[in-house]
Amino acid sequence: MCRKWFFLLTVVIAFFSLMTAFSALGADLTIYAYDSFVSEWGPAGRVIPKFEQQYGVKVELISAGDAGQVLNRAILEKKRPKADIIMGIDNNLLAKALDADILAPYRPPNLKLIPDPLIFDKTHHVIPFDHGHFAIVYDSARLQNPPKSMDDLQNPAYQGKIILEDPRTSSPGFGFLLWTIAVYGEDGYLAFWEKLMANVLTITEGWDTAYGLFTSGEAPMVLSYTTSPAYHVEYENTTRYRAIIFREGNYQQIEGMGIVKGAKNRTLAQKFIDFMLTEGFQVEIPLTNWMFPVNPAVKLPESFKYAPEPEKSLSLDTRVIQKNQDRWINDWLRIVVK
Amino acid sequence: MKQSEQSGGKARGIERHTMGASGRDTLLFLFPLLFLSIFFYFPLVSILNEGLTDESRRFTLNHVAAVLTDRYSIRVILFTVEQALISTAASVLLGLPGAYILARYDFRGKSIIRAVTTVPFVLPSIIVVLGFVIFFGNNGMLNRSLMATFNLEEPPLKVLYSMRAIILAHTFYNFPICIRLVSAVWSRVNPNLEKAATSLGARGMRLFWHVLLPQIMPGILAAAALIFIFCFTSFAVILVLGGGPKFTTIEVAIYRYAKVSLDLKAGSALAIVESFLSVFFMYAYIRLQKQVSFAEEIQLRYEKKKLVTILRSPKGALAVFYLFVTFMLIIAPMLAAVSYSFLKRSGWAGRTTFTLEWYRRFISELSSGALAVSYRAAVRNSLFFGALTVLLSLPLGTTIAYITTRKQLPARGLIEAFAMLPLGISSIILGLGYIKAYQSLPVDITGSWYAIAFAHTVIAYPFVLRAATSVFRKINPRLIQAALSLGATPWRAFWRVELPLIKSGLIAGATFAFAISVGEINATLMLYNPQFTTIPIAIYRLISSYNFFAAAALGTVLMAICFAVFLLIDKIGFEVS
Amino acid sequence: MSLILDKITKVYPDFFIDVSLSAEKGEIITLLGPSGCGKTTTLHIIVGFIPPDTGRISLNGRDVTALPPFARKVGLVFQEYALFPNMNVFKNIAFGLRMQGWSRRDTEARVRGLLELIRLPRYEARNVSELSGGEQQRIALARALAPNPDLLLLDEPLSALDAKLRNQLRSEIRRIQRELELTTVYVTHDQEEALAISDRVVVMKDGRVEQAGSSYEIYNRPKTRFVAQFVGITNMLPARVSSTRGGYTRLSSPEGTFLTNYHGSLEKGQKVTLLVRPEKCLIGGETTNENRVMGRITGCEYLGDSTIISLTLKQNPFTVKIFGPLTCKVGEEVRISFSPEACWILRD
């Protein structure tokens, strides 16, 4: 009986080890990215094969959740990093990434392809690959009088009509919180939120859930990106969903990727970043990631005409975010759970 | 001097052997002790340490105090209790009529209804959530059919992502527990009591209130306690259906602290508070349960009437309606999930079409390997962890059961309590413990497959232990005495006589362990590494990306596995709880 | 001496055992006593399930006190048979042989031989749960006998069976035991069974041996009140010794004077109890018995083959058992008589 048990145990473990060993065979480069990048509608399916072909290598792309979870995983693995590149660190998460000291700086030779304002990390730990602006997107079929400014959002006419994301778990959510701080300052944003909460239907964990609720008619407004309407034009042939440009300005998001400190395949990782800045990579961004490419040479698709350009582009300084984000979130939490 | 021979004989019949004499005994004792120490108690102590010490490693209650005074934490704790209370009340109320019908009436298809009430015990919580979302969601089957039937613009039943959703999901998941536990007690109420009361003039409501209710109260309380514990420690339901910071429970908060803000101190402090509460509730439940199993000793049973006899009356119609609703509530969401697995939708608001694509994915991976969720890997991993859990928890649980029932030990009750402790500690906290305990080790254990396997083992083995203990106890001690008198050493007596007899209990325990491992999401979510995604985690990720169809496909596979497991348990006829 | 229990004691918080006894080779001794008297505990000490506090146990000259049960070579038969439910008849009987490592051929031969002995041939493949109580008990016996034990112990083996079956099996056990010349310790609370089956009876009370002796001795020459009352019905009359002349003991009591042929050393005037078994008395009619008293009938019980008559003498109750029926008239005064040989005396 004992023997049978031992036998079974060894068989199970051997079988499994074999199977996992196969899948991890010979990856030359390991990249951590967020879910939507890696999904079949995301850019991965187009850009990765290009890189693999060009350099004759094999890339292992692992999705670890959304951008925040990707960063957390990398931080957890700090002592023994598994990834060579982390993708999805935006201007808001930069502070956390720098604090955790998990990245190695690299200045790609073709960095000059990118307009300087988009280089949000002057220390070159994170290199940008796309950008956009957050916006409240609304369903014109359900809402006839959309708000025109952040202030308008407090209007009691919009009670229960807004879907937001949780800043602790979602990068748009965090972006929106920072947006309110950028508009009202540290002294005023909490009061804004107090009024706003009456109009919030629900705060979801991630963008996917929020947008899903939005498109299924749960509420007519959702926090999303200025590019969201373009998607519906491109694939559903409708201009029903529209993004709002606020009087006070919209908050900017720039997404980037960085090389992991202590990465095993540093040289290849550098090549990937170089590749990322070229048109070969950048041209896929609009229709798969639904953001604006950082390389201005790329021609935007027709549908992007429906992604409005903000009048004012807002953002907060990295150092300021780094110093205060914990306190901001705690204060925000207190208001929200009242 | 007045001892009856019988009782004296049984009590002293085969004196438990004192421990430690033979080498085999020490080995027997060491194996579970070592395993549990390393993979349960050490992590647990790490959390206590983390939450009760400050930076300079001095004991402090500051963190715990901070947790208890912070407005957010208070809100979280209160909400946890609040939703658990409401869910429990709703579940009990919804379940009582079912318990009545099951206890008093016989009808065709009764065994099916009874079997269906086992579902909550084996169904993983993520499936519950999936089925719920698919059936009751705003875009779900119920709403869509209502909208189509009544030509509505907006979904009439908006339940998702709110307190309502949580209560509903909990009630739907737990009311069968009430039916099962209370009907077991109800059917054993002495029928003569009711006859006596009726002969003295009591009828209807008064009969129920004064005579029946006190009799079935232990069952109701036990069911309520169990349901409360489930709702209190509910994780997947809250994670998915909760509407944000306002609707967070302690479990979810700990998860967030550990995985999102990487604040292990706060997480540990909160974990300590939760552990106290859940151990307390667990203890209350065990006490109540003892009363119920007392009742089960009674042999008298109700004479059941045939349901058809009252069909014509309004009472009967109500009963049938209730049974139908019950059945639908339990079965429909799962059927909805299965049907969804054959659909897909193009784009966010496009049309839904029939497809076998999701199932095709199990057979062939996309070549670039760039898939957010590898279905095949998820299934492979789940089965692997399930098998490992069974292989590890069987010896663990059986050994401990053997020691506690056959060996003379000081403070046996205490040892039993320690052995069963994993039941009272949430698996989120266990995961947190692993993260904390092993973060400073040179070996990177979190994110490894063995961490997940060990966590599953610790979570699952109490069920093996319970199954093995109950079967061990049922063995006639005379059989062992006979074997010993025929020349068998205690070890041989165990292998040749006891083990074959407890086989059915072991199989039941093993299938439980497998089902638990395959459906486990809490600890796994804390510990997993993208390479070792399991089916429940994949489902969760897919739900989060609003891809309900793919989630449904995986959910169907998981349900198929659980169904097979559940059939096995039913065949062995093991009484749950 | 095949079995010796030498000053075996065992103390429990509410109970204790203090027993010394012995059995010859091939003898059946029975431990007889009420519930709680310690007979099963004594049995368990002999098997080795319970270690004694003091004393020694020796089997066939070997001191086995320190040996565990599986090393003692004793066969045990339980009240509830305790057959292994997951094994068939063959496997049950062969279990002890398996433990000793017998070859397949030898095992088969032995099992077959035993099945013949217990008169259940060709039962090898049968499922034990299908067998009747009597059959199961015989299989249990065969199982205990298979590994050639030095001692056979039976713990109330027949109390789970109905009366007729009990009698049948009683003789069966006796027959088998005789055939094998196997020293046997039998435990029962049924005194009829004890008397019938034993070579010697050991009467126990409260953890101690009250009296050990042959069935005849136990029944007719009880040494204590307890033994007298436990085994069968007996009449007890308080009396005083009036004379011990000529080898006869005369007693005087409020009921009258009695002549007994008791030959113990008694003193004149000593307080004693006169014991007379009911079946040794006559009622009414002509009698040559020296001892006569008058009694009034208070009740009769007709048992088919006999009648038990309850009466009252001047001060004491009295029971008489006669063959056959009796027309019973409650309240009727009748004469009871018994011979000197029928008397037995207990010192107070």
Task: Please tell me about this protein's structure.
The complex is a heterotrimer of chains A (338), B (577) and C (348). Chain A folds into two domains: 175 residues, Periplasmic binding protein-like II (D-Maltodextrin-Binding Protein, domain 2); 151 residues, Periplasmic binding protein-like II (D-Maltodextrin-Binding Protein, domain 2, 3-Layer(aba) Sandwich). In chain A, 41% of the residues lie in helices and 19% in strands. Chain A is α/β, with parallel strands linked by helices. In chain A, strands 1, 2, 3, 4, 5, 6, 7, 8, 9, 10, 11 and 12 form a twelve-stranded mixed beta sheet that branches. With 577 residues, chain B is mostly helical. Chain B is 73% helix and 2% strand. In chain B, helix 9 packs across helix 11, helix 11 runs antiparallel to helix 14 and helix 22 runs antiparallel to helix 25. Chain C is of the alpha+beta class. Chain C has eight helices and 20 strands. In chain C, the strands form four sheets. In chain C, strands 6-7-8-3-9-10 form a six-stranded mixed beta sheet, sandwiched between helices. In chain C, helix 2 packs across helix 3 and helix 2 runs parallel beside helix 4. Classes of the chains: A alpha/beta (338), B mainly alpha (577), C alpha+beta (348). Chains in contact: A-B, B-C. The interface between A and B is large, with 64 and 55 residues.
Index terms:
heterotrimer, A: 338 residues, alpha/beta, D-Maltodextrin-Binding Protein, domain 2, 2 domains, twelve-stranded mixed sheet, 12 strands, B: 577 residues, mainly alpha, two-stranded parallel ribbon, 25 helices, 6 strands, 73% helix, globular, disordered N terminus
